[in-house]
Amino acid sequence: MNHRSQTDGPGIPLLLLLTLAILILVAYCAKGDQSVSLKWDPNTDTEVTGAIVYYGNASRNYPYHTNLGNVTRATVNGLQAGLTYYFAVTATNSAGLESDYSNEVSASIPEDLTNSFPTISVMIPVDVGQGRSKTEDFVVWDTETPPGNLTVSATSANPLIIPDSNLKISGTNHNRSITIGPCVGIGQTLITILASDGNKSALSSFVLTVYPVPVAPAIWMRTKYDVAPSPDGPWTNMAVTVFPFVFDPKLFYKTW
Q1: DSSP calls for 6-70
Q2: Tens of pLDDT along 104-118?
Q3: Residue partners of 90: CB distance under 8 A and separation at least 6
């Protein structure tokens, strides 16, 4: 006879020298809150009126317990992700006597049982002149993966309008940008941005329209210009020596 509480009253044989036959992680409730389901062999002793499930984070050290009726299974809720738990069961009778612990089983609770899809902010249609470039900003995010660790790329449905090699992704963390161009053809294509955490991916697409840039009329009167690759410079002096002079649509000009 081996009791864990009172020493008088009706005896309980070592009724839970049972096997905790099955230990299953059965449900994921929410992040940081998991459940473990336990099942053990039934006891035939008619004096048994209940069971107690003990558990904790070290072997044979059980700071937590749950009182049950005369059942052969239980679910322990509210377990913390990333920790290992150890479980044992005792039996009780109406006099309050309690058996020794059963054999022990353990379960490791995963850090997270789900992997959410990344997200990409909605992109609006983009218009750009043939031979020119344009930069658009967007945002990526992921619940489990730091946004800076996401792999972001872009593709074009029509390489005759703009090839994939002319789509450049830049930026850090959740703030990203796509530089489109220089655009080759004229017309429309679908640009698709992909963000991946290595297991799951998200897509965001937008329509790119490339319009022809009109050729500027010939210049007869002025003969000196500053020319630059962008409106912000750097500006370089040039003299027009051949008439009529036609602007290059890829460059920017001002007179002086």
Answers
A1: -SSSS---STT-----EEEEEEEEETTEEEEEEE------TTEEEEEEEEESBTTB--EEEEEES
A2: 888 888 775 567 889
A3: 4, 16, 51, 52, 54, 98, 99, 100, 101, 102
Instruction: Report the pLDDT value the prediction gives residue 120, as an integer from 0 to 100.
Output: 94
- 253: enclosing H helix or E strand: strand 252-255
Tell me which residue has tokens 């005896």.
Answer: 11
Question: What confidence tens digit (pLDDT) does each residue in 64-120 have?
Answer: 999 988 888 888 888 887 888 999 888 888 888 888 888 888 888 877 556 788 999
Which domains, from first to last, does the chain contain?
Answer: 22-108 (2.60.40.10), 119-211 (2.60.40.10), 224-255 (no CATH)
